[in-house]
Amino acid sequence: MNLKLHTFAHANALDQALSACVAASLRAGIAAHETATLVVSGGRTPAGFFKALSDANINWSKVCILLADERCVEEDSPHSNARSVRSHLLQGAAAAADFLPLYRKGESLEAANQRLAALPEQFDAVVLGMGEDGHTASIFPDSPQRDAALFDTTGQPLLFAEGKAPVTARLTLTAPRLLATRSLILHITGDTKWQVFGQAMVTSTPALPVSHFLHAEGVRKHVFWTR
Fold first, then answer.
1. N or C: which end of the chain has fewer CB within 10 A?
2. b/e map of 8-40 (b: 16 or more CB within 10 Å)?
3. How confident is the model at residue 43 (pLDDT cuts 50, 70, 90)?
4. For residue 129, what is the domain's CATH number?
5. What pTM, to 2 d.p., does this model score?
6. Which residues pair with 223 in a beta bridge?
7. pLDDT (tens digit per residue) in 61-114
8. Phi-psi label, residue 7: left if phi above 0, alpha if psi -120 to 50, beta otherwise
9. pLDDT digits over 111-142, tens only?
10. Domain that residue 204 falls in
11. 69-71 vs 169-173, strand pairing mode
12. In what order do the strands lie in the sheet with 158-162?
């Protein structure tokens, strides 16, 4: 398993190290093919990482950023992942990056997938989070769309998925699309998630969707953890 584990005594140290890791991937992408594409996750956990990354010395005008998943709410909602990205990451020099929201009010799934079709075949870095139930992106253990998201055969990057309250309607990139990356990073905090991560490392099982990513072949993986 091509996986490197990074552990830290406190969140600030993790945020700085994770920022450096992602920034290096983006600079390498720009050097190799003049642009770089970064996939990030929402929620409260990445706020410090976003702030650290926004200060990184990167030619942000050559970077495209999108989310791994999104709740079907407008950006003024406190539940919007896009709102978090705009508030914490797209600041200062990083505001020059091209941000590609997943959700647009009234847009069909077909139209959203057409927008995403212009993305490069391989991302430069994907940063995922994980819930205490082992979900990642909006691929939940008990979701009716779980297997479609994990084992997609349609070739479409995006699908609707049912998530947890208070906003159950979600959009998520599929596992095959997320795994088409030069670097896959899992960002987790807390002892409970550390235990879930340990369970997911034992074997790949749909009951812990994150395990599908941890056991995937052919992609360089990093796990960043702190209490």
1. N
2. beeeeebbbbbbebbbebbbebbeeeebbbbbb
3. confident
4. 3.40.50.1360
5. 0.98
6. 5, 186
7. 999 999 999 999 999 999 999 999 999 999 999 999 999 999 999 999 999 999
8. beta
9. 999 999 999 999 999 999 999 999 999 999 99
10. 3-226
11. antiparallel
12. 69-71, 169-173, 158-162
Task: Count structural domains, the chain.
Answer: 1
For 37, the token pair is 């594409």
User: What would the two tokens of residue 211 be?
Assistant: 């395990």
Cα dihedral sign for 2, 220, 195, 151? negative
Cβ–Cβ under 8 Å, residues 181 and 122: yes
Q: Tokens 């990356």 sit at which residue?
A: 181
Beta bridge mates, 181: 123
Enter the tokens of residue 77: 């909602």
Phi, psi of 138 (to 5 degrees): -115, 45
Find the DSSP H helices in 55-173: 81-88, 109-116, 146-150
Local structure of 12: helix, strand or coil = helix
Q: Residue 98 corresponds to which amino acid?
A: D
Q: Which long-range contacts (CB under 8 A, 24 or more apart) does 111-116 make?
A: 112/158, 112/171, 113/156, 113/157, 113/158, 116/66, 116/157, 116/158
Which structure tokens are listed for 3?
């996986």
Bridge partners (DSSP) listed for residue 226: 8, 189
